[in-house]
Automatic annotation (TrEMBL):
It comes from the Bacteria. It comes from Gracilibacillus pellucidus. This is MarR family winged helix-turn-helix transcriptional regulator.
Length: 138
């Protein structure tokens, strides 16, 4: 019998496999992780990227340069402390991140139309609880 952890992982991978967007960009997993970090955290810089991914500052800097060239992210000076450089997603970077980490909204809408209101509420409640608790783990 599978543990809850194994079952949850199986459910998650099944959901993502069947409902993700078809990928349009050639983008590395590392680049997606960087986009996610910039999206989810405030005032991210190259040092934060290096630390989070457990890579050298130089390697993180090279990733950032490539992503700036692809128009996924941009560097901006912190208005409160001009010595600090902050990384932000461009609108295009947000679109790329969405297509590579989110569920396809048309597929999801079609699936939700097949569920009754009680099933929808149950799923929403469970996902909301998981999301809230996941944020507490960081």
């Amino acid at each position: 019998m599978k543990s809850n952890v194994s079952l949850f992982n199986q459910y998650w991978t099944d959901i993502y496999f069947h409902l993700h967007y078809s990928h349009q960009e050639k983008i590395s997993h590392q680049a997606i992780r960087i986009l996610q970090l910039i999206d989810k955290k405030q005032e991210i810089n190259v040092n934060n990227i290096a630390s989070h991914l457990d890579i050298s500052h130089n390697t993180a800097s090279e990733h950032i340069k490539r992503m700036i060239n692809k128009k996924y992210i941009l560097k901006q000076r912190n208005p409160l402390d001009e010595r600090k450089v902050i990384l932000n997603l461009t609108d295009y970077g947000k679109e790329v991140l969405h297509r590579n980490t989110s569920l396809d909204e048309l597929k999801l809408k079609k699936l939700l139309e097949q569920l009754d209101e009680n099933e929808k509420r149950t799923i929403e409640s469970a996902l909301k609880l998981l999301s809230e608790r996941a944020k507490e783990c960081m």
